[in-house]
Structure formats: C-alpha cells, structure tokens
Amino acid sequence: MLQAIARFKQPDGTLIPDSNITYTWKRDGQVLGTISGRGKSGAVIPVLHLFTDSTITVDAVSADGLLSGETSAVIPSVVPTLDLYEDHPLYGVLYNNALRASVFVSESEMAFIAVPYFAQAGGGSGGLSYAWRVNNSPVTSSASSPNELTINADNSNGQAVIGLEVTHPTNFYMDATGLWNIAFPGSASTQNPFQTSTQ
User: pTM of the full predicted structure?
Assistant: First the structure.
C-alpha cells in the first residue's frame, strides 16, 4: 500500500482536500489508470516480476490545475522466503521461534505451519499452492489449511526431512522453497515410514 500526501494551500491558507486533487500513478512510466483519479491518494500496486525493481511515480494536480507535484520511489525486488513454525496444541503457533534448518523436537507428534513471507497472496491461504514432502515422499495437506502439516513419528526412526514448495497459480515467477531436518524422539529399530496427518 502506497500513500501520497499532497499539501496544497489555497490563497486563504487552507489545504485543498484530497477530493479536489487528481492523482496519477505510474509504474516504470506506464500510467495505472484503474488506480488513478480524483481523490485516489492511496494505491495498492501489484508487483509484475519478483526479481525486478519497479519505479513508482505519482503526480498530484489540483482541480484548477494551478498546483501540482510529483514524486517517485524505487520499490526493490523481494525474493519470497519460507519459515516453518511449531503449532503448539496449548500455545498456538510459536511465531517467536522459526525452526532452524536442523532441529530436535521433544514430542513424537508435532503440527507445523509454514509462512511464505513476501509472497503474492490475498486472504486466507491467498490461492497459493503448497507441495509438501516428507522424506522425499509427497504428502497431502488439508484443503482448508494447506500451509499446515502434522507429523506423527511413532514407530519410526525419528528422522523427518520436510520439504515444501509454494507456488502461485498465475504468477509463475513466484516460487519459494524450504527444507528442514526434524529429529523426533523415536526408535531406530523399525522400518515403518512416517505417519502423516492433516489438521
């Protein structure tokens, strides 16, 4: 969300309200007509390409055309990143403690939630696609909570390599991946695979 603040003073010293100022928003020199217009001092501008900087320009002109101003800002590209958190049954998601690439956990069953920072999304899971893998085997997550996964390591060797790829259905530039080596307390004597469940 970008916000332009125009302080245009009339002869009597009062400020011209936004409703009497026309804002023209541009991205890399191209006018964004759908978000430009009278009183449109704020704008939400989608990023076209994740790996390319964008120059955003806004022109402000008073209704009588006597006052005007322009400013620009370079919006740097941001590469999406994935963090994995424990979803504790008592305390909820422990956002204060993102799991490291390799970590030992004390419980044999644990729920995880993945958060794709800087990813193009909107509302809920944002239409993002989550492809989970445990020990290189695909795992189906819940349709209602695709960014959540529960692993039960009972009767296993206690090692789980969790892989996740997050993609967007229309923005093919959006691709975030993560890999975590989770050590559960388990028995190494069994050859049974990890049991997985969804919330």
Answer: 0.58
